[in-house]
Amino acid sequence: MNRTEFIIAIAIVLFAAFMLGWFASWLVHRLSRVTRAEMGELESMAQQLHEAEEERGRAVAELETREADLVARLSTAEAELRATQGQLRESLTEIEELRDYIDRKLGR
Questions:
Q1: Could you tell me which residues come within 8 angstroms of residue 34 by beta carbon, excluding any fewer than 6 positions away?
Q2: Domain range list for the chain
Q3: What three-state secondary structure class fits 70?
Q4: CA of 50: how far to CAs of 32, 42, 46, 60, in Å?
Q5: Which terms are listed as keywords in the entry (predicted)?
Q6: Integer distance in angstroms from the first to the last C-alpha of the chain?
Q7: What is the mean pLDDT of the chain?
């Protein structure tokens, strides 16, 4: 094999390798290409995800509103409880004073 034949053989091998690579690239691109139906499905999924995120946001806002309302109601109930306990202590003190007064008047 002389130099010219060697160069031609190498050129043929390189061209065949190039063609094989190009064909493999085309085949991978063809098989992995997204179809219009898949794009429609992806659009639908994206829309559903967006709607779910909006719904989650509304649910979180409603939860925060309810939590604030419950905290306010709890604070009010605690304040009423403290006031009632104070009045109960005053009533008990007054009852004890009246008992002492009655005992003194009856001479016990």
A1: 42
A2: 52-108
A3: helix
A4: 26, 12, 6, 15
A5: Coiled coil, Membrane, Transmembrane, Transmembrane helix
A6: 142
A7: 93
